[in-house]
Specification:
The structure holds two protein chains of two kinds.
Chain A (H helix, E strand, L loop, with lengths): L5 H25 L9 E2 L2 H7 L14 E2 L14 H34 L4
Chain B lengths: L2 H27 L15 E7 L8 H7 L15 E8 L5 E4 L11 E4 L4 H32 L5
Antiparallel strand pairs in B: 1-2, 3-4
Classes of the chains: A mainly alpha, B alpha+beta.
Chain lengths: 118, 154
């Protein structure tokens, strides 16, 4: 007997990815003055698609890659404060969305549990 | 995925940027120093940042290993923050200023003063201050996320 739904598992993965995105962005921001450092990132949508709700926990940490298309400074560093700021706001909003959806998911289950006492 | 680990990353940057600001402050404070424990005028100091984690500044070996398949990292090897690798002295020769009244003037009347440009130091200090602000706003964002994850329990 399983209480949680498929949506719960998907949302867990979604929250995981949002937290990873925050971590990667924080790492990029921390290295904004490190010579030779290259911006690291991952494809959120592709990682989300990789999640298989029916599969037996086949998810692993997202594949990190160097982000292309950024302009390097003379010291070899290509961290863009604007990009990182946007990514951080993006991760925050995604995380809050995930939390809100998860809450409504749990509220539904709770509703079902308490429906006989009404 | 640990959200508290993100705080460590941003915290390491705060520490590194604060050390950078401190070193700049020391440089500016000693702009006119002609006597040091090592003898001679003060030598300007510079910080060297190094990323501490799986994705450091790319070196030759790094690129060679990645040749063919592109610079791809395996998962979980993201940047893990930054640290001050070293504080190195700037070996620029001191400025010789003619000031025969100065107690540290040589026999020709020249005083050796550290080569410190206030403009360079101020611009550097501004950079450190901005980077500090950037990382402290990252901490605020992380805190907001941890707080919102507590919402599930309510």
């Amino acid at each position: 007997m399983q209480i949680t739904s498929g949506t719960t598992n998907l949302l867990e993965h979604y929250l995981d990815l949002a937290a990873t995105q925050l971590k990667v962005t924080a790492g990029n921001m921390a290295n904004v003055d490190t010579p030779g450092f290259k911006t690291v990132g991952f494809d959120f949508e592709a990682e989300m698609r990789r999640a298989d709700p029916g599969g037996e926990d086949g998810e692993s940490a997202p594949v990190l890659d160097r982000v292309g298309g950024l302009i390097s400074r003379p010291d070899g560093n290509n961290v863009s404060m604007d990009r990182e700021g946007m990514k951080m706001a993006d991760a925050q909003l995604k995380f809050k969305t995930g939390i809100a959806l998860l809450r409504s998911d749990f509220a539904q289950i709770s509703e079902a549990i308490h429906s006989d006492t009404k | 995925m640990n959200l508290f680990g993100v705080l460590d990353i941003s915290g390491s940057a705060l520490t590194a940027e604060r050390i950078r600001a401190e070193v700049i402050a020391v440089n500016m404070a000693n702009a006119q120093t002609t006597r040091t424990a090592a003898g001679g005028p003060y030598v300007r100091q510079q910080v060297v940042f190094q990323s501490s984690g799986g994705a450091p500044a790319i070196g030759f070996e790094d690129l060679l290993a990645a040749a063919g398949q592109g610079p791809r990292m395996s998962s979980g090897e993201g940047p893990e923050g930054v640290r001050v690798a070293a504080v190195v002295p700037d070996r620029t020769a001191p400025i010789e200023r003619y000031d025969p009244q100065h107690p540290d003037a040589d026999k020709d009347g020249f005083v050796a003063l550290p080569d410190i440009n206030p403009l360079t130091e101020m611009a550097d200090l501004m950079g450190a201050s901005r980077a500090y602000g950037l990382n402290s706003s990252a901490i605020q964002a992380t805190k907001a996320m941890i707080a919102s994850s507590l919402e599930i329990l309510k």
